[in-house]
Each structure stands twice: as structure tokens, then as C-alpha cells.
């Protein structure tokens, strides 16, 4: 679950239906995005970020995880 997204909505005392109307999307889509069962398009993610005035990686941390390659590839000289 994307708890930051839900928390920001609840801080403003908005229902999912009210949030959906403000962003011009369906209530079902808001529910699916909050639960993580559906990912927003970049346009919809930006709508949330602009509305809440929060960065995308705060609202959608699961989509912006940094992966670090901890394996080192050694250079071998080819003769």
C-alpha cells in the first residue's frame, strides 16, 4: 500500500470519490493506485504530486526505488 499517498488524502479529509473528482479520474482508479494494485501513468502521478505539493518519490516510493548493483565486474585483459 502507498501509505504516504493515502495519508496525504486523509489529512485533507478527502474521500476517494472526492479525490477522484478533483483529479478527473475514477474512484476505482484512486483505490487501485493507493493499494498498489495499479500503477498510475506519469500524467496521473504528476496530478497527485501537484495537488499534494509533494515529490513523486514520496507519494510513490515503490515506483522510484533505486537499485544499486553491488556486483563488481573485473576487467580482464584479453591477449
General description of the model:
The chain has 79 residues and is mostly helical. It is built from 5 helices and no strands. The chain has helices at residues 3-11, 16-23, 27-35, 42-52, 56-59. Helix 2 (16-23) crosses helix 3 (27-35). It is globular, with a radius of gyration of 18 Å.
Provide the descriptors you would attach to this structure in a database record.
single chain, 79 residues, mainly alpha, globular, 5 helices
How does the SSE layout of this entry go?
Blueprint: H1 3-11, H2 16-23, H3 27-35, H4 42-52, H5 56-59
Helix pairs in contact: 2-3
Briefly say what this structure is.
The chain is mostly helical. 52% of the residues lie in helices and 0% in strands.
